[in-house]
Write a structure and sequence with these properties.
It contains one helix and 17 strands. With about 210 residues, the chain is mostly beta strands.
């Protein structure tokens, strides 16, 4: 289980219930990692604990800077104290999708972002997207943001609004415009939100093909 070293307490994950009354996607985090078992926090929705049953088939998704990982299993046990948790069995292998496999296209959509600090969220700042993929995006802004910092972004896409955290990978000063070019990866994004972005990327590609640009 070479992937196991990527799992640690506090890692943000997506827990997807594949069956039952509470089928859906939920954000949570890892509580404990054992030799064969993994405990994740029981997710909350609208302030209420999501009461998934033991035996429910689920899919767990997590990521690092280079890839998205996922595996399917079932809830082996529910634990109530000291915190509500679900126990899953760790598989021998997990599915892996390299982030570089995401198609990147030029895109120009308005963005607003807020910096995540120890004191909370900063004021809102405006930015403009330069390119987009299922794994992340690049945008320009007047504001200087730090590498590895966390931002909460609001993106206006043709199919609607999207709000999600991103992790800054690299910031570069654009001397000719006095703006900053910021490369960021999507962080704690749901598969549903990622699918929305990928559909947007495909739509842009389709329009570019119609115009003979690709």
């Amino acid at each position: 289980m070479s992937y196991k070293k990527k799992l640690f307490h506090g890692l943000a994950v997506e827990l997807i219930a594949l069956e039952g009354e509470y089928t859906g996607n939920y954000r949570t985090c890892i509580e404990e990692v054992g030799e064969r078992l993994l405990s994740v926090g029981a997710p909350f929705q609208h302030g209420q604990l999501v009461p998934l049953r033991e035996g429910t088939k689920v899919k767990l998704t997590f990521c690092d800077e280079t890839a998205v990982y996922s595996f399917e299993g079932k809830i082996m046990q529910r634990i109530a104290v000291p915190v509500p948790m679900f126990v899953l069995e760790l598989p021998d292998t997990v599915a892996k999708v390299q982030r570089r496999n995401f198609v990147r296209v030029n895109a120009s959509f308005p963005i607003m972002f807020r910096m995540v600090t120890r004191e909370g969220l900063s004021d809102s700042y405006n930015a403009m997207m330069l390119d987009l993929s299922g794994g992340g995006m690049r945008f320009t802004t007047k504001e200087r943001v730090e590498d590895r910092s966390l931002l909460y972004v609001h993106i206006t896409l043709p199919m609607g609004e999207l709000q999600t955290p991103v992790r800054v990978i690299r910031t570069e000063k654009m001397e000719e415009t006095n703006l900053y070019s910021v490369s960021a990866e999507f962080y704690e994004i749901s598969e549903r939100e990622r699918d929305t972005i990928i559909r947007c990327v495909f739509d842009i590609q389709r329009e570019m093909r119609k115009k003979g640009l690709v």
